[in-house]
């Protein structure tokens, strides 16, 4: 089953839109005006720090095959929801830009190298990524009402859609150069992560 | 390759339907009005990062030459070199951002177009690891120069995304040009293109040695 060229173009277009459209790097939610669920749903697509590792993990799982894709499809949102619930219990917001960037670089490198990995390892990665980013996100969410939990559900829905799209596309690739193109995307994520790391440790002047 | 092709088909079919829904949903939910507010440096974020690599001819020539040389060498160099370059360049950029000084950066950048152009012109075929090291050294120099030039107040993440995408697209352009290598006339044209890049490198080298701004 060969991946048709229009589908491949659409895949890259979606990826490009998702990356380019992310207007800023804000851990807090943006107000869409459609309520907390939509705020959460939008959050992933406007936060490159969250989106990049998710893209890397989804593509990596897709390249490994449908079983891996399905594992990440459920493990990541569940981990994120649990992490958000834990983060909501924290009194102070947590920000760990360097740790977030290192995670992004590691996942990008795993995608770029395309090494065979056990299913359990990839599922654990998805849970850990979800827990880590979920806690960071949850600590920033409003705690006074139930809107924090609803927003988390929105983020989980966005994760589910993103992983199913990217993982499904990567799993359907059979042409060797298409797999190479996805691995190149991994190297780009590593490069972006390295620059972000430099930015986080920037010396002014 | 995959044991369960039936479920894989389902997975892919569902993903196809979900993709269409996702794009529609994304376009509907995407809040353009947020651009009315100036926040953490988005104004000099993605666009600034994207246009930075394509604003200098020395950088463009080197990036395109990497792609052309990779295409000329064939697989796996065709994709190894363009994978190595952005990662090592980002490492150089990181060092530049962190204020780590490296000697002879301008000279190395000028040499990159000359050496890579010469390699394409001569159809040089070193071992893959040697080609990767050559490309890596030049990538450090290009990345470092960009890292020290990045504007203050820009959104770091968006700048980085734009920067890496533009660099990758320049490599892709080089590979696309290099695909003419499969024809006899194309091979000659590619070597001429390499010579042009090398001549450009001589110009930049002369500028770097004389201390003039390019």
Would you kindly provide a written description of the structure presented here, covering whatever features stand out?
The complex is a heterodimer of chains A (205) and B (214). Chain A is an all-alpha fold. Chain A is 75% helix and 0% strand. Chain A has one domain (35-200). Chain A contains 8 helices and no strands. In chain B, 74% of the residues lie in helices and 0% in strands. Chain B has 8 helices and no strands. Chain B has helices spanning 5-29, 46-51, 57-73, 77-97, 105-122, 128-149, 156-178, 184-210. The longest helix of chain B is centred in the C-terminal third of the chain and has 27 residues, at 184-210. Chain B is globular. In chain B, 47% of the residues are buried. Mean pLDDT of chain B is 78; it is low at 1-5 and 28-43. Classes of the chains: A mainly alpha (205), B mainly alpha (214). Chains A and B meet through α1, α2, α4, α7 and α8 of A and α1, α4 and α7 of B.
Summarize this entry quickly.
The complex is a heterodimer of chains A (205) and B (214). With 205 residues, chain A is mostly helical.
**General shape of chain B:** globular
What is the terminal separation of chain B in angstroms? 52 Å
Quaternary structure state of the chains depicted? heterodimer
Q: Helical segment tally of chain A?
A: 8
Euclidean distance between termini CA atoms of chain A: 54 Å
Low-confidence stretches of chain A: 22-27
Give the domain tally of chain B.
Answer: 2
Shape of chain A: globular
How do the helices and strands line up, and which of them pair or pack?
The complex is a heterodimer of chains A (205) and B (214).
Chain A lengths: L4 H17 L14 H8 L4 H17 L1 H23 L8 H17 L5 H22 L6 H25 L4 H25 L5
Helix pairs in contact in A: 2-7, 3-4, 3-5, 3-6, 3-7, 3-8, 4-6, 4-7, 5-8
Chain B lengths: L4 H25 L16 H6 L5 H17 L3 H21 L7 H18 L5 H22 L6 H23 L5 H27 L4
Helix pairs in contact in B: 3-4, 3-5, 3-7, 3-8, 4-6, 4-7, 5-6, 5-8
């Amino acid at each position: 089953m060969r991946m048709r060229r229009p589908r491949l173009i659409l895949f890259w277009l979606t990826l490009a839109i998702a990356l380019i459209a992310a207007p800023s790097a804000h851990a807090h939610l943006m107000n869409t005006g459609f309520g907390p669920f939509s705020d959460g749903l939008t959050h992933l697509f406007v936060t490159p720090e969250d989106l990049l590792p998710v893209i890397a993990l989804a593509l990596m799982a897709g390249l490994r095959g449908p079983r891996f894709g399905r594992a990440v499809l459920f493990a990541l949102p569940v981990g994120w929801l649990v992490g958000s619930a834990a983060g909501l219990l924290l009194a102070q917001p947590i920000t760990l830009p360097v740790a977030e960037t290192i995670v992004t670089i590691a996942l990008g490198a795993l995608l770029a190298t395309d090494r065979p990995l056990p299913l359990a390892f990839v599922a654990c990665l998805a849970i850990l990524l979800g827990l880590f980013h979920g806690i960071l996100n949850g600590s920033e969410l409003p705690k006074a009402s139930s809107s924090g939990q609803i927003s988390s559900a929105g983020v989980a829905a966005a994760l589910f859609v993103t992983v199913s799209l990217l993982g499904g596309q990567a799993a359907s690739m059979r042409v060797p150069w298409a797999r190479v193109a996805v691995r190149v995307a991994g190297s780009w994520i590593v490069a972006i992560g390295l620059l972000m790391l430099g930015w986080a440790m920037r010396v002014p002047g | 390759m995959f044991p369960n092709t039936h479920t894989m088909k389902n997975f892919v079919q569902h993903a196809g339907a979900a993709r269409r829904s996702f794009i529609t949903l994304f376009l509907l939910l995407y809040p353009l009005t947020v651009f009315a507010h100036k926040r953490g440096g988005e104004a000099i974020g993605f666009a600034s990062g994207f246009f930075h690599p394509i604003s200098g001819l020395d950088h463009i020539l080197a990036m395109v030459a990497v792609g052309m040389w990779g295409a000329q060498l064939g697989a796996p160099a065709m994709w190894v070199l363009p994978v190595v370059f952005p990662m090592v360049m980002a490492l150089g950029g990181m060092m530049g951002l962190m204020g780590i000084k490296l000697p002879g950066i301008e000279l190395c950048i000028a040499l990159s177009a000359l050496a890579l152009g010469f390699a394409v012109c001569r159809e040089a075929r070193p071992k893959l690891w040697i080609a990767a090291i050559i490309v890596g050294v030049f990538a450090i120099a290009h990345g470092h120069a960009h890292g020290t030039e990045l504007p203050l107040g820009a959104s770091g993440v968006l700048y980085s995304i734009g920067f890496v995408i533009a660099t990758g697209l320049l490599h892709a352009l080089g590979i696309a040009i290099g695909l003419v290598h499969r024809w006899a006339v194309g091979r000659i044209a590619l070597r001429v293109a390499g010579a042009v890049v090398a001549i450009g490198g001589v110009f930049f080298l002369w500028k770097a040695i004389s201390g003039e701004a390019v």
